[in-house]
């Protein structure tokens, strides 16, 4: 799919609101760590769990940031809408990058624990699309410098974002965040037990 050459302003916002409050899983996790409800003695395991929760929360914050900007489009005059779209693009860049990273940590957690929590990982085909989209974001600066602007700009549509032939729908992004977020909240509230082989007997 070739990128559009004319910047399009979305006519409406079709992004659904997320069910969870931003940063709530991370706050719950640290409160439970401080109170002693959750005990992860191995620093590697603490970092693994906290990184997953932090990135999942961050992806939700970025998604809601983009949604807020797009909602404003319908309330603003034509001359003010471009700035809102560009602001939304920044949030989408953040959302895609952190969501892909969060999914990597989810896979690592599911491979190292006894699975005593509700597991979720983004389906492989969707994860590949997300990873490729993220890779294009990471190389966008180089593309712009070399004059390949068509492959460096995220195009915001009514129901999706597109970059260099890759498309991510708003509904798909929301579903991925909700799934990871549910897993993050369960780990933040109840802890996680690592396999004895990985944890040497420590339990969270």
If you had to describe this structure to a student in words, what would you say it looks like?
The chain has one domain. A hairpin with a 3-residue loop joins strand 1 and strand 2. It has seven helices and three strands, in the order H-H-H-H-H-E-E-E-H-H. The protein is mainly alpha-helical and 204 residues long. Helices cover 61% and strands 5% of the residues. It has a three-stranded antiparallel sheet with strand order 1-2-3. The C terminus is likely disordered. The protein is elongated. Helix 1 packs parallel to helix 6, helix 2 packs antiparallel against helix 6 and helix 3 crosses helix 4.
Short description:
With 204 residues, the protein is mainly α.
Topology:
Layout: H1 24-35, H2 43-73, H3 78-112, H4 124-138, H5 140-145, E1 155-156, E2 160-163, E3 166-169, H6 170-190, H7 196-199
Antiparallel strand pairs: 1-2, 2-3
Helix pairs in contact: 1-2, 1-6, 2-3, 2-6, 3-4, 3-6
Keywords:
204 residues; mainly alpha; 7 helices
Radius of gyration: 19 Å
Q: What sequence of helices (H) and strands (E) makes up the elements?
A: HHHHHEEEHH
Q: Can you list the strand order of the major beta sheet? A: 1-2-3
The number of strands is: 3
Shape by Cα distribution: elongated
Which structural class should the secondary elements be placed in?
mainly alpha
Let me know the average pLDDT.
84
Strand content: under 5%
Q: Which blocks of ≥5 consecutive residues have pLDDT under 50?
A: 197-204
- Measured distance between first and last alpha carbons: 47 Å
């Amino acid at each position: 799919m070739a990128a559009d050459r004319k910047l399009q302003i979305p006519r409406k916002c079709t992004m659904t609101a997320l069910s969870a409050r931003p940063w709530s899983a991370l706050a719950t996790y640290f409160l439970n760590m401080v109170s002693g409800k959750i005990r992860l003695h191995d620093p590697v395991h603490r970092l693994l769990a906290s990184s997953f929760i932090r990135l999942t929360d961050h992806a939700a914050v970025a998604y809601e940031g983009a949604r807020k900007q797009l909602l404003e489009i319908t309330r603003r005059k034509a001359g003010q809408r471009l700035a809102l779209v560009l602001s939304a693009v920044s949030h989408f860049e953040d959302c895609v990058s952190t969501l892909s990273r969060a999914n990597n940590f989810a896979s690592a957690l599911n491979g190292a624990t006894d699975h005593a929590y509700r597991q979720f990982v983004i389906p492989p085909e969707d994860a590949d699309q997300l990873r490729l989209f993220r890779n294009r974001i990471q190389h966008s600066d180089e593309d712009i410098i070399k004059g390949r602007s068509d492959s460096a700009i995220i195009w915001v549509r009514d129901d999706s974002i597109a970059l260099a032939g890759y498309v991510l729908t708003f509904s798909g992004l929301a579903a991925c965040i909700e799934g990871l977020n549910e897993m993050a909240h369960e780990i933040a509230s109840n802890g996680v037990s690592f396999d004895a082989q990985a944890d040497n007997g420590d339990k969270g």
